[in-house]
Design brief:
It contains eleven helices and no strands. It is an all-alpha fold and about 290 residues long. About 45% of the residues are buried.
Amino acid sequence: MGIFNSDLFFGVLIGLIAYISLYIGKGIQKYAIVGLQEEKTIKSKHSGIWIFGTVLTALFVFIQWVPLAVFHTPMNLIAPLEGVGLITLLIFSFFVLKESISKEEIMGVILILAGTVIINVAAKNPVELLQEDFTLNAFLIALGILLFISIPLNIIAFRKPSNIIGILLGLNAGCFMAFQTLAKRLSDIGELALIFTFITFAFATITLAITQFAFTMARANVVVPSFASTSIILTIVLGILVINEKIVNLQIAGIVLIITGIITMNLNLKSLIEKMMKNKTNQNIS
């Protein structure tokens, strides 16, 4: 790797901007919803704030596209940047929403930042994706497996909502997020650009729908770690299997740190276990 590679630099920089936009948008949406609930009317300044937050989250689809299709940045370098987006949301929540920060969240931030640095240190220079790098059979098999699991899961969720189903839907949405990232990367191939542009929007729509559905069944701090971790892991796996991306051991170590950090920062295992045990006790009593 050379001293400075502009494609690598701008790819990572714009990737960071994409995830920061996504999670700041989510934070603004949450801020606006709290305001709307307090005022009990949609005709207020908070409705405009909510629209602004929604625009920021929608912009993610297009901003993330730039490093993947313009600067040829590998997916295994872009996807882990989602951890930095979560850190941004944590900071926004602290200063704007006045939410406290726990020791677990601080530890999660440290792990995410350490993992991000390690991944970027081990990064190789981006290269343009070629059609011969794309394995169609691997793409179709992976997509078939996802749909085989996803369709029955969503049907069950409609009929029998629960926290566990909410977590599984978070995993499901993370899978579609990974395919969305893959489709953007495949649009880097001139001959496939048009078809995968349409496929990207399809995956983006499904991701949004399932994510919001998951939030109606389980708390955000349960859905988010399952969503983000699945998105990162599957994106990297798809990159290896479908477009022959390479990943070194040092990057794997960085990814493990990031996923551990995401789970540590978002998931309070003690309270979750206590709640599940309480529910089980209530069921036994009834």
